Amino acid sequence: QGQLVESGGGLVQAGGSLRLSCAASGRWFSAYNMGWYRQAAGKQRVLVASITTRGDTNIADSVKGRFTISRDNANNTLYLHMNSLDPEDTAAYYCNFVPAQRGLWGQGTQVTVSS
Question: Cα-Cα-Cα-Cα dihedral of 86, 91, 97, 103, to 10°?
Fold first, then answer.
């Protein structure tokens, strides 16, 4: 059974930066399109960034120009680089396939942006 473990979240001031990491449990990682999702309190989980197996990326309008996604297939790791953070970015962040696989959700990593 594959597993994804997110890390890198924390408390940051508005305008700050964070880099989230998602470690996959095996080499199967390179064979899948991957994405970062976030879920704010009381809201649905949404996809904010995705990357194909070839490295093509797509960024949600809400974070375009501030967030970038990358992957390191040699180390089975997905990244989310977040700049110019805003309190509206406060959420739990998760990685998963695109489209998401229900059984693959991890614990997520919390990002809290203070104003």
Answer: 180
Give DSSP secondary structure letters for 13-38: ETT--EEEEEEESSGGGGGS-EEEEE
Tokens of 41: 């309190």
Burial per residue of 93-111, b for 16 or more beta-carbon CB atoms within 10 angstroms, e otherwise:
bbbbbbeeeeebeeebbeb
Rounded to 5°, the CA angle 23-26-28 comes to 110
Which two three-digit tokens encode residue 79?
Answer: 């990244």
Express each pLDDT in 20-75 by its tens digit: 999 999 999 999 999 999 999 999 999 999 999 999 999 999 999 999 999 999 99
